[in-house]
From TrEMBL:
Protein name: H/ACA ribonucleoprotein complex subunit 2
Family under the similarity heading: Belongs to the eukaryotic ribosomal protein eL8 family.
Organism the protein comes from: Carpinus fangiana
Gene Ontology terms, MF aspect: RNA binding
Subcellular location per the Swiss-Prot or TrEMBL entry: Nucleus, Nucleolus
GO biological process: mRNA splicing, via spliceosome; rRNA processing; snRNA pseudouridine synthesis
Keyword Secreted attributed: no
Gene3D superfamilies per record: 3.30.1330.30
Entry keyword set: Nucleus, Ribonucleoprotein, Ribosome biogenesis, RNA-binding, rRNA processing
Amino acid sequence: MGSDSEAEKAQQKEKEIKKLLAIAPIAKPLAGKKLCKRTLKLVRRAAEHKCLKRGVKEVVKSIRRGHKGVCVIAGNISPIDVITHVPILCEEAEIPYVYVPSKEDLANAGATKRPTCCVLVLTKPAKGELGPEEGEKLKADYKQVAADVSELALSLF
């Protein structure tokens, strides 16, 4: 029984190493384990409240229309040319962005089955309003992640 858990741990470590090897060289600022977990939790909560734009096309359209939020980009996209323009758009619009290691994890957090290149977590839903309690929770998570992302970006430069 002990050897099974050791074998599972070894397989899990192998998967993590493969994920890290698949990350593109331009994927900076890359979220650490703690920030990645917190960011994916924010994405999950935003998906529940319909405050999420999924995919490159929707994200670019929202940024150009002036919507604000946090952009989360997958680091293991191939070919990387698909998303190279997104960080530039985010910087021009003063939107914080962060890379996470896996597009599959990003899709799971965003409540889709297809792997997702990038998502934009909006500060308010596209249609309707949030309840006061839910809105406060989402805003608190959003502010915490946005602050952590900004801090991570500043540490790189």
